[in-house]
Design brief:
The chain is α/β, with parallel strands linked by helices and 687 residues long. Helix content is 43%, strand content 14%. It has 25 helices and 17 strands. It has a five-stranded parallel β-sheet with strand order 2-1-3-4-5, sandwiched between helices. It has a five-stranded mixed β-sheet with strand order 10-9-8-11-12, sandwiched between helices. Strand 3, helix 7 and strand 4 form a beta-alpha-beta unit. Helix 9 packs parallel to helix 12. The longest helix has 20 residues.
């Protein structure tokens, strides 16, 4: 264990200095000591306040990472490590978090949590090893806690976090500390001055160290919608004390919603029986101890599973759930049954990977659902309609019962926009039109059914933005296509250009199919080069591709070309292997990365013909990126860097869209409000 070279300067640290009371405190009586101690502790909050902007910025970066499955990891030694452990241990029960998402690494291991292990903090190598074992990724956030700002264990851990591009932060009680000089993303120095007893950093330094992790985790939970009006709404009722708290929370939520005119007093009166202890306990039990779900079910009068679906639509945010559901309670139906006055609008996004359906009404999305692939180029009409029906069935089942008498009943839609891949390359368009009209009770002639390609739906993402008149949508999923859109004199969006979309036989460059095909070509080239020699070695990429397909080399080509599995989907699925290897943070696979760069260049070539004054000027337009590939941040960055290399100017805005159907349904409702006849008033597309 190598000692610090600057060990002699330890006494120069703020945490080691003697306080002004040092000379006289031994003569204080007990009350005098308590008063002096309390006065010293009062200096902690003002010191923390100086770092609030930095802490807020850290939380703003932490929240989306947690939402995407990233972890918050505290690292510390002694009291600092125990504080991190204590903060993490409370979160799963308090906020229903995943216990593997909030972790603490304490020098000396688990034993150090109960019993001090004083020498454990001096090993930088141990800190490095402990964090290496965590398999850190760029999605994680690592917060080091060290009063002195120079604890070797914490330094080692922070260096590893930086190596793997995790967000790094340090909480110290000294200025210009060794940890700060490592170049961490967020340095939080809370200089509280000399301790009441010199060097005892469990005092003011410990108070600051506890306050800041509490602030980080609590504020992050609030930002993630795990509280509501100051209530611990996401608590798990797994004991009698928490069950009683759950009942109080539900009652308080109902009272506050009533005070805010969320719903009429008649609703609360009619549901009053639900608020007695027995009924609430039963509801919480039906919701698996999830108090938030129980709240949602009580205030909305929806079954727990349906209430959970609406919570999911609001990404778990109860305030957003309330805003979405509040217009739809206690509205009279013409036949006396409870119902909704808003018209329903549906968008169907049928692509090569999935069929997604969104239902929109008033000012909110009421339902989202998905089924399997839905591409007219690669499947027959019966299979296509089966996937569309399944996606519609799932979405309709999420609607509150006021919209229909049974989940088997399809409600009346004011308008439906169906964007189906390959619809313009088939002779069965009329058959599909007739089937959709019969299923949904809408019609092309009246304008209540609009049938386009799936790429045309992306025009809604541009049309909803009143600040732009043009834009380009680029899709890279199983297939690839680019489309340009412009606004006409009436404000309607027109599809004014299109490239790609030729299908796997002639095109789809830059798509998942293209990436998988290139990986397979490399594998076949290696197999052929061996000419039966068993001593040759496959690369990691080639081995992973072979494992993914699950066939021996001698059967590989036959299986791909003639098996019951759709070749396009099978080949496209290999893109997952390529992206995993090409984008791994530690030593990316160069062959995989070359394939991904080639795909990015191909997608750029799709966009280039649309960059011209009469179609779209980037600085005046919006770029929409959609499809499974472009929703991978690293691949999106590759494509945008390729744009820059090809001298494509900066767009006014770049928007990555995961759920196109939601935008399309909302746009449909917006256009309907302008005219009851949607015929020729929606996005015009290719003939």
């Amino acid at each position: 264990m190598a000692p610090f070279s600057d060990l002699g300067s330890l006494g120069a640290l703020e945490t080691e200095a003697r306080s002004e009371l040092a000379q006289s405190m031994d003569s204080f009586d007990t009350l005098g000591l308590c008063k002096a101690f309390n006065e010293e502790e009062s200096k902690v909050s003002p010191a923390v306040a100086c770092s609030l902007p930095i802490i807020a910025s850290l939380i703003d970066e932490l929240v989306p990472r947690l939402s995407e499955g990233g972890r918050l990891i505290y690292v510390g030694a002694g009291n600092s490590g125990r504080i991190g452990f204590m903060d993490c241990s409370e979160l799963p029960v308090t906020f229903s978090t995943d216990e593997n998402q909030f972790l603490a690494i304490v020098a000396g291991g688990d034993e150090a949590i109960l019993t001090a292990q004083e020498g454990a903090e001096d090993s930088e190598a141990d800190g490095s090893a402990k964090l290496e074992m965590m398999r850190i990724t760029s999605h994680d956030t690592v917060v080091g806690i060290s009063a002195s700002g120079r604890t070797p264990f914490v330094i080692g851990a922070i260096k590893i976090a930086q190596k793997y591009k995790a967000v790094t932060a340090v909480v110290t009680n000294t200025s210009r500390s060794t940890l700060e000089k490592l170049g961490v993303d967020y340095s939080i120095p809370v200089v509280v001055g000399p301790e009441f007893i010199a060097g005892s950093t469990r005092l003011k330094a410990g108070s600051a160290a506890k306050q800041i992790p509490n602030m980080i985790s609590t504020c992050a939970m609030i930002r993630m919608g795990k509280t509501y009006m100051g209530l611990m709404i996401d608590v798990r009722a797994n004991n009698q004390k928490l069950l009683a708290r759950g009942r109080r929370i539900i009652r308080q939520v109902c009272e506050r919603l009533k005070e805010n005119n969320f719903t009429s007093s008649e609703h609360l009166k009619s549901e009053k029986f639900l608020l007695d202890d027995e009924s609430l306990d039963l509801m919480i039990k039906r919701c698996g101890g999830n108090v938030k779900r129980a709240c949602a079910a009580v205030v909305s009068r929806l079954p727990p599973d349906c209430a959970q679906q609406h919570l999911d639509l609001a990404y778990g945010n109860f305030r957003q759930f309330v805003q979405n559901i509040s217009p739809h309670i206690n509205q009279p139906h013409k036949n006396g049954l409870p119902g909704y006055n808003e018209k329903l609008f549906m968008a169907i996004d049928g692509g090569g990977t999935k069929c997604a359906v969104s239902i929109y009404a008033g000012s909110s999305v009421l339902a989202r659902a998905q089924a399997g692939a839905c591409n007219f180029q690669s499947m027959n009409i019966e299979d296509l309609m089966a996937e569309i029906k399944e996606a519609i069935r799932k979405s309709v089942s999420q609607l509150p019962s006021q919209y229909h008498h049974s989940i088997e009943e399809i409600p009346k839609f004011a308008a439906v926009w169906a964007g189906i891949a390959g619809v313009h390359h088939t002779s069965h368009r009329e058959v599909l039109t007739a089937r959709l009209e019969s299923l949904l009770k809408v019609s092309i002639s009246s304008g209540s059914l609009i049938l386009t390609s799936d790429s045309a739906l992306l025009g809604a993402c541009i049309g909803m933005d009143g600040t732009v008149d043009t834009g380009i949508a680029l899709i890279a999923g199983t297939g690839s296509v680019a489309a340009a859109f412009g606004r006409d004199t009436r404000g309607e969006m027109l599809q004014i250009g299109r490239t790609g979309g030729w299908g796997p036989l002639l095109g789809d460059q830059g798509s998942a199919f293209d990436i998988g095909k290139q990986a397979l070509q490399g594998l076949f080239a290696t197999i052929e080069a061996s000419q039966g020699d068993d001593d040759y070695c496959l690369s990691e990429l080639e081995s992973r591709v072979l494992d993914r397909i699950g066939q021996e080399k001698k059967n590989l080509l036959y299986y791909i070309l003639y098996s019951d599995t759709q070749p396009r989907h099978l080949v496209g699925s290999l893109a997952k292997v390529v992206t995993e290897l090409g984008f791994q943070t530690d030593s990316p696979d160069l062959a995989a990365l070359d394939i991904l760069k080639s795909a990015a260049r191909s997608l750029t070539q799709l966009v280039l013909p649309l960059i011209r004054p009469r179609i779209c000027e980037p600085k005046e337009g919006r770029l929409i990126l959609s499809g499974a590939l472009l929703n991978i941040p690293q691949f999106k960055d590759l494509v945008l860097r390729e744009f820059s290399r090809q001298k494509i100017g900066l767009f006014k805005e770049v928007l990555v869209v995961d759920d196109v159907s939601t935008y399309a349904a909302k746009y449909l409702q917006t256009r309907y409000s302008d005219s009851n006849n949607l015929h020729h008033r929606i996005i015009h597309t290719e003939p």
